């Protein structure tokens, strides 16, 4: 500290030699320099304490990980159980990882298909649906968590037309999602109409485009998921479908399996 103060005195002396200023002003500058030095020293002490604390935490964490590996209680390999959070899909039980077209792809097992909300016998109730659906599982990563999303594709009796159900997880209040889907009270859309419907006790929104194709989209909002149901195909006209067909299919989904 004395060396640093002495250095300040030398700077002040040099300044005195080069600049004409009052003793009061010189003393003020000296005090300011002293305060800055004290502040810097305090920050350096805190930095040293912080560095020691971080080192201690890292050492403890290393010991914890090593202990977990030795006891076999920690799974650090990232394989096997993909059921992070509230996920209900487990590798080897509900799906298998297979290489398709050079890419690792999750393929649902029969148990995995039965674990989804999609009905496999919808064609028995809705005569415009042809056969059982294709059900796909996609796995993505958000931070450290595995996120599972599913999709069902139903062929219809109209050549080239399919009904798609895309499932997406959400964590917002249902009312917030509904406000996004329903028309704005002051500035409603000019391209489509939308109104609320009830689907198996859940809130839904049916949107219909004001175009030649007349595309219809049905959204079902539950506490954890949004189900987007719509028709599509090779041509624009394939996106036109009787809205009641979508509502019928939506009512067949087994939401209790979420």
CATH class designation of the largest domain: Alpha Beta
What would the average pLDDT be, to the nearest integer? 78
End-to-end separation: 67 Å
* Number of DSSP-assigned strands: 9
Percentage of residues in strands? 25-35%
Q: SS-based structural class?
A: alpha+beta
What's the CATH topology label of the largest domain? Protein Transport Mog1p, Chain A
State the share of residues found in helices, binned by percent: 25-40%
List key phrases describing it:
alpha+beta; 258 residues; 34% helix; two-stranded antiparallel ribbon; Protein Transport Mog1p, Chain A; 2 domains
What does this structure look like?
The protein is of the alpha+beta class. The chain folds into two domains: 70 residues; 163 residues, Protein Transport Mog1p, Chain A (3-Layer(aba) Sandwich), CATH 3.40.1000. It is 34% helix and 27% strand. It has a seven-stranded antiparallel β-sheet, with helices on both faces. Helix 1 packs antiparallel against helix 2. The longest helix has 49 residues. It is globular, with a radius of gyration of 33 Å. About 13% of the residues have low confidence.
Describe the structure concisely:
With 258 residues, the chain is α+β, with helices and mostly antiparallel strands.
Indicate the topology:
Layout (H helix, E strand, L loop, with lengths): L1 H17 L4 H49 L23 E6 L2 E6 L1 H5 L19 E9 L2 E11 L6 E8 L4 H8 L10 E8 L2 E8 L6 E6 L3 E8 L10 H10 L6
Antiparallel strand pairs: 1-2, 3-4, 4-5, 5-9, 6-7, 7-8, 8-9
Helix pairs in contact: 1-2
């Amino acid at each position: 500290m004395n060396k640093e103060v002495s250095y300040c005195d030398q700077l002040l002396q040099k300044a005195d030699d080069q600049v004409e200023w009052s003793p009061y002003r010189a003393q003020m500058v000296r005090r300011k320099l002293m305060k800055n030095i004290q502040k810097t020293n305090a920050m350096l002490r805190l930095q040293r304490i912080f560095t020691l604390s971080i080192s201690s935490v890292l050492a403890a964490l290393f010991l914890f990980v090593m202990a977990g590996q030795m006891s076999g209680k920690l799974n650090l390999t990232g394989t096997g159980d993909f059921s992070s959070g509230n996920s209900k899909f487990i590798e080897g039980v509900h799906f298998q990882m297979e290489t398709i077209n050079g890419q690792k792809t999750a393929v649902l097992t029969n148990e995995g298909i039965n674990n989804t909300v999609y009905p496999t016998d919808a064609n028995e109730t809705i005569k415009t649906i042809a056969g059982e659906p294709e059900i796909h599982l996609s796995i993505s990563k958000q931070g450290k968590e595995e996120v599972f999303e599913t999709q069902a594709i139903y062929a219809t009796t109209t050549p080239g037309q399919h009904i798609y159900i895309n499932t997406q997880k959400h964590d917002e209040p249902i009312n917030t999602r509904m406000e996004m889907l329903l028309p704005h009270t002051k500035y409603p859309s000019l391209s489509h109409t939308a109104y609320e419907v009830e689907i198996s006790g859940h809130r839904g929104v049916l949107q219909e485009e004001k175009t030649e194709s007349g595309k219809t989209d049905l959204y079902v909002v539950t506490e954890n998921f949004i189900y987007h149901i719509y028709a599509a195909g090779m041509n624009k006209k394939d996106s036109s479908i009787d809205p009641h067909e979508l509502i019928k299919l939506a009512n067949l989904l087994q939401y209790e399996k979420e």
